[in-house]
């Protein structure tokens, strides 16, 4: 018996699978569009799709199909290739250009089997092909495969929506944290109200460069009278908010605005303020930090007390980098005797060292952000590099300018220029510097 042919001579008989009326993936594929200028072909395919649980709409031309796609957004499109007017290839291109909420699976029905023709169809946006006459079992298998792809696409879209919503929530939280951190930076900056201060004929300049919004470095200075000066460099372990909170706590212990609250000062029998020895101050800080069992952070410290009349400087070094003395004659050397960090262990006895400064000498305290900075050559700056950097940086202006120039040179030669991986800070004493003496004389 000869197969029944449509108006284009294509057999319309199909092998129909009667075993099941439910198609796997029908929850994903709800609406199908059948496009063919042959009414009989449309009827047969539509009958199968509806039997498999799909809702079906029909179009007799590409133009009619485009209009339906615009208004209905079908999940599945089965389109004949050869149609008058807009053929299936052009319809597929137009279909892919439509704005859609989700992906639509497109199957071209064709009598073409050449590889070049299949390539043209894929380029136009087709997902699959079926060769006429269509076999019902093969059609069902291709649609099931398409349903799996659509299911994965929709699951991915859902996950992307969840990710987008989560990112939106995280961005809101980040903005709030960023706002708080900016305010925290202002508070931390207030811990260092002065960056430059003259003490008689001497001057102290401070530099503080956190690697983030807030940092764990702290530098400061104070003086109870014209004869004594105390200045320090502190580096709290770790980075970020916890370290910044520790610096705020320590800044309260060494407050320059409220001498009676400053543990580095005490009153003599006449009620006059004087500076405690550096080793005593280090021990008192260590006792206070160890008294709080909930604090795991510790700090390194370099604290110096200078007699502004004689130039005698007494220093305590608690795990901090060795200070650098730069003499007026151009020579420079590291000094100090090491020591255990503050807040690490109980009952520490700190050693104290002593040097004498002459007019024009400078004493540089700094955090390990300087020597441990990784340079372009892949190596850390270390002590030798810091020594070269310190003596090669011109000291033609103020101490503040010198520190800034020194930091700028460091930043330019870092492995990642300008991107700090640790806080960088420094305190510079210019003892009996001519510039300060000249200003003092004029005043």
From TrEMBL:
<dbReference type="Pfam" id="PF00072">
    <property type="entry name" value="Response_reg"/>
</dbReference>
<dbReference type="GO" id="GO:0000160">
    <property type="term" value="P:phosphorelay signal transduction system"/>
</dbReference>
<protein>
    <submittedName>
        <fullName>Sigma-B regulation protein RsbU (Phosphoserine phosphatase)</fullName>
    </submittedName>
</protein>
<dbReference type="InterPro" id="IPR001932">
    <property type="entry name" value="PPM-type_phosphatase-like_dom"/>
</dbReference>
<keyword id="KW-0378">Hydrolase</keyword>
<dbReference type="Pfam" id="PF07228">
    <property type="entry name" value="SpoIIE"/>
</dbReference>
<feature type="modified residue" description="4-aspartylphosphate">
    <location>
        <position position="80"/>
    </location>
</feature>
<dbReference type="InterPro" id="IPR036457">
    <property type="entry name" value="PPM-type-like_dom_sf"/>
</dbReference>
<feature type="domain" description="Response regulatory">
    <location>
        <begin position="31"/>
        <end position="147"/>
    </location>
</feature>
<dbReference type="InterPro" id="IPR001789">
    <property type="entry name" value="Sig_transdc_resp-reg_receiver"/>
</dbReference>
<keyword id="KW-0597">Phosphoprotein</keyword>
<dbReference type="InterPro" id="IPR052016">
    <property type="entry name" value="Bact_Sigma-Reg"/>
</dbReference>
<dbReference type="InterPro" id="IPR011006">
    <property type="entry name" value="CheY-like_superfamily"/>
</dbReference>
<dbReference type="GO" id="GO:0016791">
    <property type="term" value="F:phosphatase activity"/>
</dbReference>
